[in-house]
Amino acid sequence: MKLILKLEEWGFFILSLYLFLLLDYSWWVFPLLMFAPDISILAYAINNKIGAIIYNIFHHRGLSIALYIAGTFLGNQLIQLIGIMLFAHSTIDRILGYGLKYLDSFGSTHLGNITNVKPENP
Fold it and tell me: How far apart are alpha carbons 67 and 78 in whole angstroms?
């Protein structure tokens, strides 16, 4: 099942690349902005609850899709770009096992506890 879910995530990532290519931005913008949503980790300096809330806002696919659709309807490629980058980033995070955060700690995610993760056998 994990393999199927990871393949689905790769499909989402390829979709984000395709949607990016439809915009009028240079190719280097995509890798430049790929990890920009991780700036939200800084909110954990306040406390775990605020950190999780801010982190989840920046990593929620619903928000990224809503931004992309809003940008499409408004004819605003910057809003579309923001939506695509949030979507692509959250997809890569899920491929790597990082999910949306619970309020108790950074390591507690909807995909499991990432602080106690042991490498899978090859």
Answer: 10
Residue in the structure block whose two tokens are 């910057």: 78
Q: Where are the alpha helices (DSSP H) in 22-119?
A: 29-33, 48-58, 61-74, 77-95
CA 51, CA 41: separation in Å to the nearest integer?
Answer: 7
User: How far, in whole angstroms, is CA 2 from its chain's centroid?
Assistant: 18
Pair of tokens at residue 81: 């770009």
Query: Are 99 and 110 contacting, i.e. CB atoms less than 8 angstroms apart?
Result: yes
pLDDT, one tens digit per residue, over 56-105 is 999 999 999 999 999 999 999 999 999 999 999 999 998 988 877 777 76
Q: Decide if 64 contacts 87 (C-beta within 8 A).
A: yes
Q: How many residues does the chain have?
A: 122
How far apart (Å, rounded) are the C-alpha atoms in residues 72 and 10? Answer: 23
